[in-house]
Amino acid sequence: MKQICPNCEKITDVQHIKTDEEITVKGERINVPVEYFKCMECGDEFDDPESKHDPLAFAYKEYRRRHGMMQPKEIRALRQRYGLTQKELCKLLGWGEITLSRYENGALQDDTHNTILQMIKDPRNLLGLVELQGDFLAEEKKNRLIGLLENAVEETHSFPSIYSEHFGKYGPDILSGFKELNVNKLFQAIIFFCVDGVLKTKLCKLLFYADFKHYRNNASSITGVRYVHLKPGPVPDRYGYYFATLENEEKAISVDEVNYGEYTGEMYHADIKPDLSPFSNFFKFRDKNIN
Ligand SMILES: [Zn+2]
Predict the structure, then answer these.
(1) So where are the chain's domains?
(2) How many angstroms is it from 23 CA to the middle of ligand 1?
């Protein structure tokens, strides 16, 4: 193999060497593949001028991967998704104006900055930031940005990601119809049964019948929620907590007190449309009857 040796300043016979090199990133040793030429005449080692391989970039990429950090491409994509310039996003975040340019071009982001970038991946956080710190943006740009973020919030807004930790998790067993609790399905089922207005006791029974009918026919429940037996009948375990969350946090359902002579009851109404996409035919079939 022949190459121009920069030391001999002429074309010489060279050896193409492929090996591993250890690079230390923040005290962590990372093996990086490297390639270079060795001149057979003078013994000088030199890089392939054609090669685009950057050992340090490789080491940073591996370091980020090991630590679940965002990669430069992801950072750029996140920013571009909302049509923000590097300077604009830096200003929103209160960072020096070349910080993002450095990160997007391969510099290793510091841990605090990485945490903040991870946080603004959630459009709700970025939206909050724009509302709080976005006054320097042109009115039109700010409004467009808020619109994009509001859409993104709607798209990514799913119940389980928010609530599965909140409510704790339990696995499939006899009490949950051999199914893991699926908070999204439970919430959508509750909203579904509230579409035409339903009394609280009936709502609990409908959930129970739906889950137990499905359990009888398919050997697993729909929502995976556990039921407990109260005097008026079976109710989902911690149903008050679920209903209150949908009412107060999600504004998905609302409650009115209704009077039947000497009796009063709590009437639940759906304020948003249930998302039936997670369900198989059971609910979709019923939905046709309602609409
Ligand atoms: Zn040489």
Answers:
(1) 2-53, 72-156, 162-290
(2) 27
Ligand 1 centroid – CA 17 distance (Å): 15
Please give the distance, rounded to the nearest whole angstrom, from the Cα atom of residue 10 to the centre of ligand 1: 8
Threshold 0.90, pTM exceeds: no
Which stretches of the chain are DSSP H helices?
A: 55-66, 72-81, 86-93, 99-104, 111-120, 123-133, 139-156, 159-167, 183-193, 200-218, 239-244, 281-290
Adjacency order of strands within the sheet including 198-199: 198-199, 263-270, 253-260
Q: Which two tokens stand for residue 72?
A: 């430069």
Distance 33 CA to ligand 1 centre (A): 23
Cβ(247)–Cβ(254) under 8 Å? yes
**1 Cα: distance to centroid of ligand 1 (angstroms):** 13
Q: 76-112 pLDDT, tens per residue?
A: 999 999 999 999 999 999 999 999 999 999 999 999 9
User: Two tokens at 255?
Assistant: 């409650």
Cα(59) to centroid of ligand 1, in Å? Answer: 29
pLDDT, one tens digit per residue, over 222-235 is 888 888 877 777 88
219 alpha carbon to ligand 1 midpoint, in Å?
76
**What is the CATH number assigned to the segment(s) 162-290?**
1.10.10
Ligand 1 centroid – CA 18 distance (Å): 18
